[in-house]
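Reopening closed ticket. The problem is back. First fold of the pair:
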Amino acid sequence: MEKHGTPIIQIQDVRKSFRAADGRERPVLEGVDFMLREGEIVALLGQSGSGKSTLLRIMAGLIGVDAGAVQYRGQPLYGPARAISMVFQSFALFPWLTVQQNVELGLEARGIGRAERAERAEKAISLIGLAGFEGALPRELSGGMRQRVGIARALVTQPDVLLMDEAFSALDVLTGERLRDDILELWTQGGMPTKAMLVVSHNIEEAVLMADRILIFASDPGRIRFQLAIDLPRPRIADSAEVRSLIDEVYALMTAGAVRAGRTTEEPEALRLHDRLPEADIARMEGLLELLAGAPFHGEADLPALAEESELTDDELLPVASALGLLGLARVQDGDLHLTLLGRRYVDGDHTVRQQLFGEQVLEHVPLAAHIRHSLEQDPERALPEQPFLRLLQQHLDPAEAERVLKTVIEWGRHGEVFEYDFHAGSIHLPDDQQDDAARTSTIE
């Protein structure tokens, strides 16, 4: 297919907010400008909660925007577009319908007659490699086969644009790779009716192998931070020097520091009280530090190599690396992870030393943890319910993300003996051996 063809979807200065639990507007997207053209595959990368799926739903006409313009082939898009189809992470099949019936659903909704429906569905099922399974029920299929049904259902309407929202992430690695390769082969050979694809992914290698252009999303609110054009012929070989170089470049862009005054800094941006935290648990953080400190890395590692050695996915590795950078235990620079002197002390220390160092860094670099600790020290009971802190987060984050951030703060705080948590009461309190010290300090003040 010809690259850089006629614009199909154009998004200009789009903003979108959702209402938070307290009634406030929470910005999800802001200032998004994007154009999808005929003949191209675009991959969209970014951390969870950055608004990527929201952008896809806007492009499909499933939700509206608060400001800005969305156009399909030069015309304003105010509702679902018949020529735009989506494939979701979940297979979303009706379990009581056969493969044939699931694929025909979109055609039936458009009033297409039974004979034509059957013919077009059979062609789509055959195209996606499921010929012979038309009469099977979803429970009789593997995960990869069920996702193929979802793709056939999207393609049967012969859409201009196929939007894929992490369509391969629910599958095991080999099944996902096989399905991705089959889709790319159909695309390259012109077997797909689709003229353009937008793929949301958490897998950097997948994005490099698939896309003509990669967009990297920033969060809070979601916006396009970087764009990278890829001018390599398909099929692309994952182990080739060109592909590995591009993967390294995307890792570097994904882990680049804050953008200030139009320039990218290497230092992580200081958090605010209500900011989200990387989704990184203590065990993974310590495991990655120890791996980084030992052979063969000896304190410095290329992130793709570290991902392979640790057997972590990009979606797991990048938040852990970000958390280590935030806490000063490692430094992320140009797609590499470097152990800091503090990180070395942490790796070499015993359990007590590790707890002390971790607690000091959490209090210094995580404002919410410091706020909770200070609040506990001021309270006569040295204990507070978690709800006020959860409500504070919910003013800026959706309820699920607010709960995740508070859970992460509590886990980090407990590991660093900054505070403890009562799971039965849902309350946070000072460690027992620190309560008397806090009381004396409060009396003196």
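Second fold of the pair, where the issue appears:
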Amino acid sequence: MSRNYLQAAVEIAQEAGKILIEAFSGPLDIRYKGDEVDLVTQADKRSEQFIVSRLNEYFPGHAITAEEGTGQDTASAFRWHVDPLDGTTNFAHHYPCFCVSIALAERDTLLAGAIFNPYYNELYTAARGEGAAFNGRKIAVSKVPTLSTSLLCTGFPVRNRRISPNLQYYGEFTQRTHGVRRDGSAALDLACVASGRFDGFWEFGLNKWDVAAGVLLIEEAGGKVSDFAGEPYQLGAPVILASNGLIHEEMRQVAWEISRRAPAPGSR
């Protein structure tokens, strides 16, 4: 059954990707959500409207949580987590690091996920118990064994940047690794950990739709996802730590040490 859900997620993500590429190639209609930092484009809205309508068509009665608010709550145990355009700021500046992210959970269990970067035609997929794939080929996390030889990624919030603790983590991890990248799309960051491009990832304050598909990808690719205390990650938790598994404990120890000096939301 997960395979059928995944097939639907892939089809819908690829069609939504066409909407984004069409908008990306022309002048962008940019608006703001509440303040001058948090962007939203008409492409976000058009992509989400398409995704939600297609999910309703294929799976009537399923609950849907979507970033721009057009989802629905139902009594169903099945819930889709939809980010119609992850990396909106990149998109608005014509930086081609953005994607569509769609995942399905049955209560607390992720069943299927798809992340699609339409600019590069890169598709990441995962189904519970069936592994993860990149453009149809099976993927696995990296085999980098130590934090000192790793390449990490992270992100910074669009809101309340001044009170985010992440600059301290960014500096510390930069000193202890081959480097830290910040590409502006949490979904793609997680997908890149799953495929071995990055060895680890951490971030604060992410929403369920930001991470649902990426968390499943990493788990199915053999990696690990937790909070800073090492407890299993719960969707929507204040902090997320993801890795190839081999460097996870080193990353966790560093993050925990920093959190004791600069407490992060939910880190204690």
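Update: turned out to be a display glitch only; the data is intact. The chain has a mean pLDDT of 92. The longest strand covers residues 78-86. Please close again.
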